[in-house]
Structures are given as structure tokens and as C-alpha cells.
Design brief:
3-stranded antiparallel β-sheet, 7 strands
């Protein structure tokens, strides 16, 4: 009989986060910024990764769930909503001494990557195939403006 368990990453992340906070360390999270669904300020991404400060002073409304990490933060004074699928969390460590953990790859996070590219803009998202127009009055007054 095969037992299927839930991923360890969210539990390890929360445990390390609590330990870092209890010991007055600053928790830093390393994120794979290329992972599907990640919402971080791209201007701070370096080599496909971003390091985020998860301390209470740096975040608002921090949520560490089994599926994602979400919070509000300011980057150079500009408020941002941050969203990180759990599969994008690579490591958590203390800023002060580097103590922490790198997360091992887990099968549960392999299938969550998007197979199709996201459209880059409106032009790419709109189906531009020529469809035959029906004779008579159109039911819509909207049209695509190029």
C-alpha cells in the first residue's frame, strides 16, 4: 500500500520562520522568480531569484499557508502585493548569520508549472483569427482597436 503525504516545504518553512523570529533573527526568503504564479517586483530579481525580508517590520498581512506565501511590502516606498506559490520558495535563512534551510525539490511542486506561455500583452491575448461575419446586424457594438 502506497501512502501519499503532503509536501514538507510549508511545514519546514513555518517552523524555521518561527524559530528565526523567536531568536530575534531577520528571516530572509529566497524565491524562484521564474516559477509560475510568482508576483514580485521584477526590478529586484537577479539571476531568476529574489531575496525577500519576511520580518514583521518589512511585511504586512503576512500569510504562510500550505499553498502560498502572501504579504504586502514597500519597495523604495512603493507598496506592492507579493504572492509566492509554495513551490517557488527555495530557502529561508537568518540575515544575521545565514542559518536556515534550503528546500529539497518535491514532486508536488513539479506539476504546478504552467505549460503554456502567458500572453505578454493585449494583442497576444486576443484571438485574431479571421472569423466569418454574419450577414445582418451585429449583436455587439465592441470592436478590437489596433
Amino acid at each position: 500500500m502506497e501512502y501519499k503525504s503532503s509536501p514538507k516545504r510549508p511545514y519546514l518553512l513555518r517552523a524555521y520562520y518561527d524559530w528565526l523570529i523567536d531568536n530575534d533573527f531577520t528571516p530572509y526568503l529566497v524565491v524562484d522568480a521564474t516559477y509560475w504564479g510568482v508576483k514580485v517586483p521584477v526590478e529586484y530579481v537577479k539571476d531568476g531569484q529574489i531575496v525577500l525580508n519576511l520580518s514583521a517590520n518589512a511585511t504586512g498581512n503576512l500569510q504562510l499557508t500550505n499553498d502560498f506565501i502572501q504579504f504586502n511590502a514597500r519597495f523604495r516606498g512603493v507598496p506592492q502585493d507579493i504572492y509566492i506559490p509554495m513551490g517557488a520558495a527555495l530557502a529561508i535563512y537568518a540575515r544575521e548569520n545565514g542559518d536556515g534551510v534550503m528546500f529539497e525539490p518535491e514532486e508536488a511542486y513539479d506539476h504546478l508549472e504552467q505549460t503554456e506561455e502567458q500572453p505578454i500583452g493585449f494583442e497576444k491575448a486576443v484571438d485574431k483569427t479571421d472569423k466569418p461575419k454574419k450577414a445582418g446586424k451585429s449583436t455587439s457594438h465592441l470592436r478590437i482597436v489596433k
